Amino acid sequence: MKNTIARLAGALLALALTTSLAQSKVTIAVGGGSCLCYLPTVLARQLGEYDKAGLDVELVDLKGGSDALKAVLGGSADVVSGYFDHCVNLAAKKQELQAFVVYDRYPGLVLVVAPSRTNDIKSVKDLAGKKVGVSAPGSSTDFFLKYMLKKNGLDPTSAAVIGVGLGATAVAAMEQGQIDAAVMLDPSVTVLQGSHKDLRILSDTRTQKDTLETFGGEYPGGALYSTAAWVSGHEKETQALTNAILATLAWIHSHSPEEIMAKMPEETVGKNKDLYLAALKNTIPMYSETGKMDPKGADAVLAVFSVGSPEVANAKIDVSKTFTNKFVDHAKKSAGTAK
After folding, report:
1. What does the pLDDT read at residue 18?
2. For 294, which DSSP code?
């Protein structure tokens, strides 16, 4: 497997170096750059993959996926690095968004009880009337909370949603008792577990097993996406971004966690490298090896949203229009690794 991945990386590099693209400027809005769920987007810059693909990429770090989405819809960014479920949710509002390369096989979302509330919050049902932190209202963390409340027989709006970000601000809000629980991602979850050994986790989607138990099927997480109009009008840039992410995914799966951490910005890793490394080891299986969207996974996202959102359930969404695999297929065909 590692030899195949290495050959893919080499072929993609050769493809990128022979691409006739000039240095096109692309702005990517990231829904929380410190989160390991978005690591491939940041690592691609650290490895120089955007440059190799002929792109001048600016990464804009925002508080959550909803803020990143607003940046693209408002015209201040070209592409979102965020969770695919926004593409499905916006389809219900007749806004056409399209994911073109998927880097997270699982969402990695974790519903965690604040350390001070461990004794009185023992199940999702106990969250009714409580303050629950999310990265930002309207983000994937918020969608996940509403889904879990609905799944456990509660009104999706029965908990008060508080935006706390994804990194140190979320950890601080939990430890200082500003919120009763939160939907978090790594490395924040591992950081909390390092300080609170009895940390109560109500739901965890960091592995295939946990994801299947939660959603009943695979559920894609992070992806690069934009408006369908931008994708169709900027196919060279879209292809170049896809090539860069695929090369980065290949690099991830052919290097050790220690080597990956060494490439990440110091401010992203933070002072406690041991905890970051532990979180990274937990997260690596989450990263895609193919970059492709599994149509069944896209269907699962639609099914989940239909449970918690009458608007989505009644919208008659054609989920096949919310993603495309043609850029991934083209990259692999050009690299001679098409399957």
Report:
1. 45
2. P
